[in-house]
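Re: export button greyed out
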Amino acid sequence: MIVAENVTKEYKMGEVIVRALAGVSIKIEEGDFVVIVGPSGSGKSTLMHILGALDKPTAGKVLIDGEDISEMDDWELAMLRRKKIGFIFQNFNLIPTLNALENVVIPTEPLPGDKTKYDQRGIELLKMLGLGDRLLHKPSELSGGQRQRVSIARSLINNPEVIFADEPTGNLDTVTGNHIVEIMRKLNKEEKKTFVIVTHDQSLLDYANKQVFIRDGKIEKQTKKKIIKN
Amino acid sequence: MIKLSFLNLFRRKSRTFLTLLAIAVGVASIIVLVSLVDGVVADFTEVFEQFQGLIVLEKGAADVPFSKLDRSFEHKLEKINGVKVAIPEIWVLPNKIDGQIPEFSLATVMVYGLDLDKYHVSSGSGWIAEVEKGSFIRNSDTDSVVIGKKIAEDYDKFVGSVLDIDGKKYRVKGIFAGQSEFIEGVIVMPLEAARELADLDADKVNSFTVGLTDPSKDKQIAEQIEFIYSDDLQALSMSQYSEQFGEIFGSLRLLVWAIAAIAAVVAGVGIINTILMSILDRTAEIGTLKATGWTNENVFMMIMYEALSIGILGGIIGLILGFMVDLFLASILNINFLITVPLLLQAFLFALFIGLIAGIYPAYRAVKLDPIEAIRSG
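Workaround output, generated via the alternate export path:
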């Protein structure tokens, strides 16, 4: 469970101090499918980075499973991300020289011990996502939707509790985008994975059990609801 | 991780290739230059080892051709305790051989005139190596010479051939072979024949080779000679010569290393640049690795592996390149290169070291990348 209490984040841009988040409180519970929407510059990405232990708040508290991330150093944050958190990006951020399977297992590369069990899990994940016949393809040989599925597999390789997705459909056409969100919903339902999706695409709200509207660094509206789409 | 580092290198093939080339040229130049110096030293050492005894020169003369001594020192020297024999010598740098100006090289052609009868008595400790073909000569063989193998090869001479030195004709009686080109570039003739060539007064010689009853006492006896004839003579023992020589070439070797090392350091700057650029190309990727749980140490090591790989690969290519350049130069220039395992190892380790050092700054920069900025830039 992730709890943010009155989180503020300020950046210094030259002489100017930019306040990206101005007192945000939010609770993400196990099994949630959270969609955070807001216009660009609203602070939604900053919120995601802080909830995902990529960044620390300027003020306020972020507790991930009860542990305060503002007390942690770089190494502890990396360990936290390694064990509990997965990321999916708008640009997929795959490594072009590695094939699909190698990209999926790259987060486990620094881990000690037997690599074959990670390869095994990587193959299972790619098969589950319908890429069983694309294991050895390079990203350049895959379509946008296929690439995003590889990056979903990568986010799952360390079996995290919560997966953060930053505009996961932003670089995809509507049909492919919907397919990707459906995959995430399926993982949410069947594998009990928590998802936090940041987007400006309002149509994704239909999939969420928790909708968050953010503007000017503040949460405008936060609603819990029944999921409309599956 | 090592595989990833390695793959990263080959994303920008031409950039990596140029950096590899720079390192390889640095390593190759270390090998070529140092092996050249070592080769020359090895040749000289051969000469020193063959020669036991002292060389006595005019005080203050830089080398034998510039020294001029009264022949009367011959008997004076032989009266000194421990001196077995003093052989008078005349050294001539010939202007023309067979009508040609001798080619300038490290092993210049020298005419060496000496009291051959005495040389025989002293049972051959001196500059002349074993006669391989033909026979040795005596003082009475005034129109005859014994030549080194290099001269025989360069001027196409056999036993019985005629050799023209500065317009005078000599018959080749024997050919000797030594281990060193310096010895094989010598033309031996009787003292009086050389005097004619050198145009030296009848009572003058250039130097004496002094044979000792106990060669291990060479330094003491040299000091004794210099003490007794402190106004006229300097006496050099071969061990002294060898030490002086060793010092000169030791510092030359160091200088050559330094020059080549500068080349390699420049190549190291090339590595820094290559890897920094490649990090800039890959900010999003490095950010992603961090987001997925790679620690700063993991990222640091990945970049270090890349720099080390360039060092190792460049080192290996440099070793091969240096070896080939040596073979090529040796085949066209008639120079002996001495490539030793320690030299190859040192040059390789140097490349490795450069890679290691050059990796640190880019790796540090990669660690400092903010994952958020990095992801955004993707």
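Chain B has a mean pLDDT of 85. The button fix ships in the next patch.
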